[in-house]
């Protein structure tokens, strides 16, 4: 059993119509799409059409139907207003990025208290075929809108593992837990690739990204358990926001905990940030997790964090993300 969401196929749009006027017109709509070969399925007041017929339907709907009574969804997501359908269609470019693997990796150093390179965080960068840069927020927004988050996350993970293999050094790789249905199936390819490349799995640290709020703690635990069983390490980011209680952290037992940059930048002169940083440090040591401060940009902040007991550091002070790993001590 594999994950069909990792395979890029033509999108199907489920259309749900409500209201007497819309229901009266629906049979004609169904007849039209059946004739054009773009009808996929029909169930009562819901019809599923292929993307190739979606723009045609959108034009017809605005001309002849009560748009407030029409909802759509893709990939079993929540039902959405028709007004958002055009945005989903315009983001079709994400499919090309994934199928053609238009992705590269950048490397940002993570250093110890002696400023020696301990690891690299691998960050994905994207471009369209014409060379246009795609910003991370844009690409992940497009992936969510079109139900491609699963496929994009897999592409990022697999590309990062391949890029990390020649380094023979610890690397931090982001992943989106909500994109993973079943660790056994969705993450198996990652474990198999690491084994195929002959890389010690303990060199990989999979990091729960801060942009995804995890509501299902049991699901996250099953993912982290899978990684641990395969010999990988894992890190939690944005701990103060989503994983604030010591009980939760003891359940998850991350190997690393990252202090968010909003508490790092200016910490040397801000008593409020210092309190957060000290509480974070105490919490990480209590669960035997390695504390890592990210977003370090000044010597003053670095020295304060180092003197306070932080062990690892990341930020522009030590190096920006670059296409080639920075060499150092």
TrEMBL record:
A single MF term (Gene Ontology): cyclic-guanylate-specific phosphodiesterase activity
Domain (EAL) ranges: 87-329
InterPro entries in alphabetical order: Cyclic-di-GMP_PDE-like (IPR050706), EAL_dom (IPR001633), EAL_sf (IPR035919)
Protein's name in the database: Diguanylate phosphodiesterase
Organism: Paenibacillus antarcticus
